Amino acid sequence: MVGMINHLFDRMKISINRCNGWIIFSIVVFIYLLFSVIIDQYIFGKEVYIRSFSDQLTQESLEAMLGFQERYWWFGYVFTPLLLLIKLSFATVCISIGTVLSNVEFHFKNIFKVVLLAEVVFIVAQTLYLVNLSFHLDTLTLETASNYYPLTILSYFGTENVVQWLQYPLQTLNLFEVAYIVVISWLLSKQWKEDFAESMLVVLPSYATGLILWLVFVAFITLQVS
Amino acid sequence: MKRKLAFIFLLFIIGAIGYLGFSIYDQLQEKQVVKERIAQVPEFTAIGLDGRVIQSNNFVRKAPFILTYFNTGCEFCRAEIRSIKSHRSLQERAMIYLISDEPARVLKQFRNKLELDSLQKIKVLQDSTAEVKELFGVKGVPNTFVYNREGKLLKNFQGETKAEILYKLVKK
């Protein structure tokens, strides 16, 4: 049994090294674009915007906003690959710093592939989020949408009880982030034949430092504009 | 070399976290100061489009008043002002001051274009030194402050706000 597992892990190591990062990246981009289509077409339709803003905006402003959205619907789709590439590269850079400082030999390319594969955790999270949203279409507003992201600190407190600048950080702190770190650590440990716990000790502080930087940056920008 | 570079990068990230964290703390402190300062109408002066200097203590009389910071080029500001203009009940209940830091010439053109000059309860003011902007911590427009007859802040709306919502507040 142990032999079989070891054999499986060895094969996994080989397959991670062999797989083409750009093909995986294209698949991930395709999945995220699919999510965007579902969100635009079936989740955040006109009704949600009207429900979210009709109390505060005048009819003419609401129509102008919806018109703007209709004209520039493609904007988000164009930037999805670029934003994803930046996000993945940032995570890779953070983990690379951790590996270099821990004297572990790793190619940037291989860490990037592992980060890409671990993205499956967020794909699962996003799928659950969309399913959750689809059950609340009748009452959904842009403000309450964050409440339905699964297993977050924000959904525990509720958006209405959290100040605006803290909402994104509390939504990002969720169990899927923990799972993401675990999966990356596990995949990396399979590559360099180290103990999983040792791999965690490299990935956790390096990724967490990058994540904290991102969260304080978003909180800073939110405070600047509000 | 690689290790040195990684260490520099790590220091940069930690430095950035520290800087942003301190800035967040600073901004929160500043927001709290502004909140306390405007809880009751603060003292300030603005200039009417006829050139007269208006003191803020003249605002507090026997009726609530609304102070909307705006910009003539802002579509959402224009929509809010048009909404206020067409809401007669709101004008009966409250005095409305529309204030901007743009030149008086631009504000006069705007007032004439929107036909606000004939309305007794809507006054366009100029914040020539951006004193009001600073005092109220205005970062985006429109930004509306609703005060009751005692000069106590009832609510601050950031972004466009329909006249109906303002009316609900002042009619209480």
Automatic annotation (TrEMBL), chain B:
Domain of life where this protein originates: Bacteria
Domain Thioredoxin per the UniProt entry, residue ranges: 35-172
Annotated InterPro entries: AhpC/TSA, Thioredoxin-like_sf, Thioredoxin_domain, Thioredoxin_ResA/DsbE_sf
A single MF term (Gene Ontology): oxidoreductase activity
PANTHER family hit by this protein: CHROMOSOME UNDETERMINED SCAFFOLD_47, WHOLE GENOME SHOTGUN SEQUENCE (PTHR42852:SF18), THIOL:DISULFIDE INTERCHANGE PROTEIN DSBE (PTHR42852)
Protein name: Thioredoxin domain-containing protein
Origin species: Fodinibius salipaludis
